[in-house]
Amino acid sequence: MNRILGSIVSLVQHLATVFTDPDVYRPAACPHCGRGGVWHHGCYHRKADRLNSAEESLNPVPVRRFLCPGCWHTCSRLPACIPPRRWYDWFVQQAVLLLLLCGASLGQCERRTGRPRDTVRRWRDWLRQRSDEFALFLRSRFPELGRLADFESFWRHVLEDVTLQQAMVWLDKELVVP
Ligand SMILES: [Zn+2]
User: Fold this and answer.
1) Average pLDDT by consecutive 10-residue portion of the chain (178 residues)?
2) Axis crossing angle, helix 106-113 with helix 90-101, rounded to the nearest 10
């Protein structure tokens, strides 16, 4: 999909780049029809900052939008620090998934991370459902993952050594994530 810009890893870096070097977000081609030369088309905003207090919040965070002169669809690319279609950032998701992979129950995970049980369950089921597909691509990029046969050790290794954010940046080149 190539929807994520892997080199932009923090919101502060993203905010600076949006204003000083917006062309880095321009897709090489329209994801709908494949035509090159998409135009700048303003911004939309995400409430991507979930760490800072209201006074220090970076929200709303602008995301550059582009318009295809061929099919008139709009498109955008996100920095690595803002997950597509997810409310929480990758590091929160990673902390929850690591606890689960280390044997914590849904209830323990909810108590220790403060994330609702339904959210924890959804992330757990997502990783189980997509694991085979993700593992295929991750193993081709990180050969050392090839010898880890079982689900838990494979994903613990990915989250600890690669990080979920960088794994998703890599997978985004080939697949739709998350
Ligand atoms: Zn198009």
Assistant:
1) 90 95 94 95 93 91 96 96 90 95 95 94 96 94 85 94 94 91
2) 140
Question: Which amino acid, 107?
Answer: G
Instruction: Indicate the pTM of the whole model.
Output: 0.88
How far is the centre of ligand 1, averaged over its atoms, from the C-alpha of 73 (Å)? 6
Centre of ligand 1 from the C-alpha of residue 143, in Å: 36
| Tokens of residue 163, six digits | 């990080």
Distance from the alpha carbon of residue 44 to the mean position of ligand 1, in angstroms:
19
Residue 46 forms beta bridges with which residues? 61
What is the spatial distance between Cα 52 and Cα 57, in angstroms, rounded to a whole number? 5
What secondary structure does DSSP assign to the chain, as a single string?
---EETT--SHHHHHHHHHH-GGGG--SB-TTT--B-PEEEEEEEE----SS-TTT--PSEEEEEEE-TTT--EE--EETTS-TT-SS-HHHHHHHHHHHHTT--HHHHHHHH---HHHHHHHHHHHHHHHHHHHHHHHHH-GGGGG--SHHHHHHHIIIII-HHHHHHHHHTTS---
